[in-house]
Amino acid sequence: MADPFTTLYLHLKKLFVSDIYRNADHEVVRKVMLMHGMALVGMVYLSVYGFITLRQGRLLITAFDFGTFLALGVTLLMLRRTGNYILCGYLGVSAMYILFTFFFVTGGVNGTGFMWLYSFPLFTMFLLGSHDGAVASLLLLTAATTFMVHD
C-alpha cells in the first residue's frame, strides 16, 4: 500500500502538471505545483477582496484586484499551454509587484497596504531563485522607499 502523501502528490502532479513535465526533475515539478497553489489561493483571496471592495464602492482597488486575478489566471493558462514555468513565474511576480506597489501607495484597505510587502520576498525568491528574487524584492523596496521619501 502506498504512502498517502505520495498518493496525494501523484494526484496533484497529474492535476496541475501537464505532460510536458513527465521527464522533469522533482524540483521543477514541485515549483510548478507550488506556482499553481499560490496562484489559486491568491486568486481566491483577490476575488473575495474584489467583491468586498466593490460593495464598499472602492472601484480603483476593485479594478486592481480583478485585474491581478485575471493576470494570474492567464499566467496559469499559459503555464498549462506552454510549460514555460520560468516565464510564467516572472509574469506572476510582475502582476503581484504592480498590485503590492498599488496597495502600498494607496494604503490598501484601512491603511494595511504596507503589510503586503512582507510576503513579496518570500515567494519571489522561491519562484525566481535567490538572485532574481532578491532583485525583484529590491525593486519593490526601491519603489516603496521612493514613495515614502516623496510622499
Describe this structure in words.
- By secondary structure, the protein is mostly helical.
- It has six helices and no strands.
- It has helices at 4-16, 26-56, 59-82, 85-106, 120-128, 130-150.
- α2 runs antiparallel to α3 (59-82) and α4 packs antiparallel against α5 (120-128).
- The protein is globular.
Main β-sheet: number of strands, strand sense, barrel status?
Answer: none
**Strand element count:** 0
- Indicate the low-confidence ranges by residue numbers: none
- Roughly how many Å is the radius of gyration? 17 Å
Question: Tally the helices: what do you get?
Answer: 6
What is this structure, in a nutshell?
The chain has 151 residues and is mostly helical.
